[in-house]
Amino acid sequence: MSDFLNVSASLTGRRWTGPGTEIMRAAEALEQDTGLPGALAQVLARRGVTAQAAALFLEPSLRDLLPDPRSLRDMDIAATRFLAAVKGRQRIAVFGDYDVDGGSSAALLLIWLRQMGREATLYIPDRIDEGYGPNDEAMAMLARDHDLIVCVDCGTLSHGPIAAAKGADVVILDHHLGGETLPDALAVVNPNRQDEDGALAHLCAAAVVFLMLVEVNRMMREEGARGPDLMAMLDLVALATVADVAPLIGVNRALVRQGLKVMARRDRPGIVALSDVARMDSAPSAHHLGFLLGPRVNAGGRIGKADLGARLLATDDEQEARALAERLDQLNTERREVEAAVRASAMAQAEERGFDAPLVWAAGEGWHPGVVGIVASRLKEATNRPAIVIGLEGGEGKGSGRSVSGIDLGASIQRLAAEGLLLKGGGHKMAAGLTVARERLEEAMDRLSELLARQGAGEIGPAELKLDGILMSGAATVELVEQIDAAGPFGAGAPAPRFAFADVEIRFAKQVGESHLKLRFGDGAGPTVDAIAFGAFDTALGPRLIAHGGARFHLAGRLEVNIWGGRQQVQLRLEDAAEA
Hints:
By secondary structure, this protein is α/β, with parallel strands linked by helices. It is about 40% helix and about 20% strand. It has three domains: about 65-330, inorganic pyrophosphatase (n-terminal core); about 345-460, Diaminopimelate Epimerase, Chain A, domain 1 (Roll), CATH 3.10.310; about 465-580, CATH 2.40.50.460. The strands form four sheets. Strands 3-2-4-5-6 form a five-stranded parallel sheet, with helices on both faces. Strands 7-8-9-11-10 form a five-stranded mixed sheet, sandwiched between helices. Strand 13, helix 19 and strand 14 form a beta-alpha-beta unit. This is Single-stranded-DNA-specific exonuclease RecJ. Keywords: Coiled coil, Exonuclease, Hydrolase, Nuclease.
């Protein structure tokens, strides 16, 4: 494939690629057959949507796409036991992970139970003291006082802790990669169990919890009773799906689309309070969930009190919601400062080892376990390689990894744990966590590098920036953005279309905040377009564009509608540039 606009190395070191002739032809045919706008036809063609399937794709409905919950193994056992606990007024505990997916999953159960007039104990482990997932002490303690423990977004690999829950039944609702054997729980509902067919592998844990509640409600209807309104809970499923970077394909598209509509009604005190502290001034979008709400919910588990996020999402008290949202907002600011310090050190250390190795990694004394995952993401983005970042304390290191498309990091980490090089480790293709003994750190990373090299991680060239076409500045309108949005929601597995503006002149450029860049550009033929580049001064992008000296550039990014003072205006979220 030839370089788009002849850009083989942009200002951020990426090679630009455009849509192939096949996609261009498919888009033209789609436009003719359906009468849809050209830009929208292009997005659909890239996603492989045919003219026959276009109408259904543009209006994804849960009625058409929601799978039968019973298609998942152990679902009938889990739903039956949960309903029996509710009817028998038994004591229920919910054990969740400390991230957005875990918090949303726990909140779904707590809210459903509350609407049924029942309460449950919430237990979220402390990231630093207890680490990810169930542990022996917590499970034994919960089992002493409860009849049923529901583990959400965790538990699939927790053989020992599940065995420690003597006297209570344990039900696991998870989506993390399963091992060859499952823990001795009453039910393990997980689309990523090894004996599942993988058809629902893209679901996050909150979607698995939602499916169990769908099944429980169905069982109640058969008995002539009514369960709580599940459609009103889709805002939580949408938030978890986007924040956990689950691919926006299949039923996930419908869950997020419907969930955003629910969220726009502003009925949930926790999400309303969070939207307000994040200064969200327009209807919620997938972008808001991933970049404004998600990081704040996560901040409690990263550097604060682990259960803050789940409590915020579950509360129906507006005053409590405001207090929790403000605390999380404050923690998120602190998290950003901690992250910036760790990122600078990790980047320098990884660069010294070499950015072109199959694995890019860094480890540091006292690096906060709550930010190593985000820093691993930044390393991965900068190098286009799988990345691991580890915080060392005492005799061990706790780390987090992020992968690139086509390289299965979770499977390699699991193999490392099975070989005894890690104290523990697990995850999925794109993200994984691990604990390693300090003296085995180098050995473990060498072996991981070797396993990833076998998958071709060392052969990956410069990152590609995929572009959907060229636009003139006059074509960048609010109407165009609205037409494209009909193919959304956009996110993981379904990127928003990205356009290039060729050979433009920068009319205005200014640094805003610590590392962002605002600019205005035009091609001389139409009106000028405003652009914002977040984090531009963390790369070569900001310094070069602000000192443009009248040079002309190709600019690339995604179009969005910016609402300012009640006025709607189109804006380019600038991602890359190259000298024309």
